[in-house]
Design brief:
By secondary structure, this protein is of the alpha+beta class. The chain contains ten helices and seven strands.
Length: 322
Amino acid sequence: MKTIKKIFTAAIASVLLAATLTVNAAAAQESEKTVTVSVEAFSIGCGYVLEPTKISFNEGETAADAVKKVLEQNNITFDASYQYGFYINGISFRHTADIPSYITDAVVGHDDEYDEDILFGDYIDEDSTPDDLAANDYVYGLSGWLFTVNQPTSEAMSKGMSQTTLNDGDVIRLQFSLDCGADIGTANISGMPQWGYHADFYPTADKTELTRAIAESDAVSPSPLYNAVSQMKKTASYLPAARTEVDSALDDYNTVKALNPLSGDVDKNGKITILGAILIQKSALSVSGLDSVQSLIADCNSDGEISLVDAVFAQKKAVAQA
């Protein structure tokens, strides 16, 4: 009888322990706070150094802590200074100078308007160091790494990374700027024109939600969702993207995510049909078009374009399912 009681007591204790561990694990998961960090070289036409990445943080940590953590976790070497707080001087990144024409055109137009001639000829890699991207590499005294948290404000831009305390859901973007933020849309809000520097070259839209969505997606290629994420990345990398473009890319992603369609199911009815394959073929031949969501679904091999290869794929799948 005593043995039975001991076994029963041990069993109850095991159940209670398991329940406690489950509750504690759930509570820990629920209380975990995260931020999204991206490192961007859009101003020189080189895309992401680090695509938007979600990481956890502890109460009281700063943007400097998050940036250091994510770079170290991804084995990205960086050089930083700490004299006036934390500042990224340079990041190891294999790059080529392919400055978008919308930036060089803006510089020429701005300099002609204000009778200036200080930048256009200087938009070259000063140090000719293709393996790292650092301050003064392109325009001495003006180029370097700038950061923003969410949609920046004047107050937020006045703080350094080590003075910026993190909040759950924050989006930190570390961006390489050629011209004190004028090319990435932060010059005006940080007050650069009043010090004699260039004003913003063009309007820029808030890409906080877009960046967060990219980080949260686990889409794999080929798939319509992967195509939607690729479209968001393309929109993010185009610095002058209008608010409507950003919203459209985000809306299309959310629509595709909710539909979870098969590649080639342009009818959006849960199966691939011959009619759908014909619509893809017509789009590939520019006979007729598809809407933005259908276009993401029609790119069956996720190569960034709708072609006859996609139409043939859809046709074969339709026949196989018939």
